[in-house]
Amino acid sequence: MSAPLTFVAPRRAKPPRHLADLTSAERREVVAGLGEKPFRADQLSRHYFARLVDDPAEMTDLPAAVRDRLTAELLPRLLTSVRELTSDRGMTRKMLWKAFDGTLIESVLMRYPDRATMCVSSQAGCGMNCPFCATGQAGLTRNLSTAEIVEQVAAGARVLARGEVAGGPGRVSNIVFMGMGEPLANYRAVLGAVRRITDPSPDGLGISQRSVTVSTVGLVPAIEKLAAEGLSVRLAVSLHAPDDELRDELVPVNNRWKVREVLDAAWAYADRTGRRVSIEYALIRDINDQAWRADLLGRLLRGHLVHVNLIPLNPTPGSKWTASRPQDEQEFVARLEAQGVPVTVRDTRGREIDGACGQLAATEK
């Protein structure tokens, strides 16, 4: 096993404690410590996770004095909406949030005919420094708390439930940790968020673990740790290059863990969980989209429980990096398929609303 490498966010004031930071038992302990009956914690949980209530005045089964005290202690406002932009005929909604300390974070709700997916951020900014990524170029501001991550999902669930998204009332069915930040560099909070998101209602949002995807640029010790958690979430590896020479440039953490090490950890995760690994590959014109790189990628992946998700790059303003030509994209797909590797090209959403992670926050700043 590789030695662990710690990524330390700058020291900042902590977000206020929130119901979603705590397990069901911990919530009851806190409520009892405030001199109230422990079952009040269950009532709060039901309002927040099951009924998706965000206005204390609607919690009418709680006496007013009790309600005010408990919501102040356990349901503080964590995120305030700064901007919301929609595209794709109202089926995609990008949300920019301001946290208690002014930190800006983003999340995206994408509605499809058969599902509704929330893409959430796990950090404000990112410390991985990938040069083609808007978030990576912004640097790391801080880690998000478990509750700040969960609240992004809850906010998306509310607007869907209220019918505020095109297509009428609905529910969030899928979660992808592919927003701002490197999820496995904020391991404890992300794991807590996964458990709150997937805990049965009313202890959590009741979304299936199999509908949750956690992405990483390849923090090998954290992948190994996640494999031992007994979860059934999907692992997505942001590979972006099959050769170390190029990946050292595109994904600087590759200087610590090389392509083979990352893929070995991914295969071990697949063996342990029985879940197919997703390989994320942003196609960048004349950088990583050559036919020979498709062939090399195919040789590395064939025979494994894997699926390749090709991502037409959503370029950031002023960047030299841009999306591949259509013919090069098609050739890349054909080369992978020829080696029996399952591959799809991601349905790009939100290009006209600064859809790539970090773009909207950068514009606001």
Automatic annotation (TrEMBL):
Chief location of this protein within or outside the cell: cytoplasm
Binding site for S-adenosyl-L-methionine: G181, E182, S215, S238, L239, H240, N314
Compartment annotation: Cytoplasm
Record-linked InterPro entries: Aldolase_TIM (IPR013785), Elp3/MiaA/NifB-like_rSAM (IPR006638), Methyltransferase_A (IPR040072), RlmN_N (IPR048641), RNA_MTrfase_RlmN (IPR027492), rRNA_lsu_MTrfase_RlmN/Cfr (IPR004383), rSAM (IPR007197), rSAM_sf (IPR058240)
SMART domains the record matches: Elp3
Radical SAM core domain boundaries: 112-351
Alphabetical list of SUPFAM superfamilies matching this protein: Radical SAM enzymes
Top-rank lineage group of the source organism: Bacteria
Cofactor binding mode and count: Binds 1 [4Fe-4S] cluster. The cluster is coordinated with 3 cysteines and an exchangeable S-adenosyl-L-methionine.
Keyword Disulfide bond annotated: yes
Key words of the record: 4Fe-4S, Cytoplasm, Disulfide bond, Iron, Iron-sulfur, Metal-binding, Methyltransferase, rRNA processing, S-adenosyl-L-methionine, Transferase, tRNA processing
Pfam families linked: Radical_SAM, RlmN_N
Gene Ontology cellular component terms for the protein in this record: cytoplasm
Cofactor(s) annotated in UniProt: [4Fe-4S] cluster
NCBIfam families xrefs: rRNA_mod_RlmN
Additional remark text: Reaction proceeds by a ping-pong mechanism involving intermediate methylation of a conserved cysteine residue.
Name of the featured protein: Probable dual-specificity RNA methyltransferase RlmN
